[in-house]
Give the backbone structure.
Amino acid sequence: DKHGRAVRAGKLKFSGDRRRVIAATDAYVGIWDAATGKLLTKLPIPKIEMNDTVRILTCTPDSSVIVGSLETNYERMTQVYDAHTVVWDGTTGKMLRTLTHKRQNHFIDMSLSSDGKRLATTNGGGPTVWDTSTGQQLLHVPNDNKGRKHSEPDVSSQYTSHVWSVQFSPDGKQLAMGDILGVKLLDATSGKLLQQLEGPYRYSSSVSPGLVFSKDGQWLARLGTQEKAISRNALASGSDTRTTTN
């Protein structure tokens, strides 16, 4: 993009067919042709109070629906305030609506269901699922790790319930959430725990260790965690979901 214009490289998104790249600049959210680099569409960034910066992006596989977190140029970690998201039509470039998420502070990760109807978020306190048409909260799942401890005794238990990442499965039926102990697979409608995948790590090399499903939903990768303290355990019998860590 224009020389000197910041692009939030940590939140670049490919469309499902890998033909387009979606990214947030300090002036707009852009959609580029992945082969030529040509800017195809500019999505406007609205301003709500002091919030006029998009930090996190998520989209449907066909990029027909795009959602971004709307924040300020600086982060206020200790004050409680509402979080905001923006919903765009990725085909026309038009902004569809803005959503206000009461007392959510700011989001550290988001995931959009493949049909664009549900948005999963985390502000660290457990995943919340929202209706992208109305902004209504559909589900909240506290991350309960009571009685579980990290494999390294000097890692405080106060950090084990913090949720760093969320990701819908391709079919939208499961929701994965990652913490410092591993990953939990939840029923995306009820929040019921389906499977607990052990994989502790001590530190993350990124702000939000990402979770990525394969297209068929059979593999789940966790990205951005250091190799130290990562363990691999056999999964519960009867499940064909496989895991890997990086």
Confidence is low (pLDDT under 50) at residues 229-246. The first strand starts at residue 13 and ends at 14.
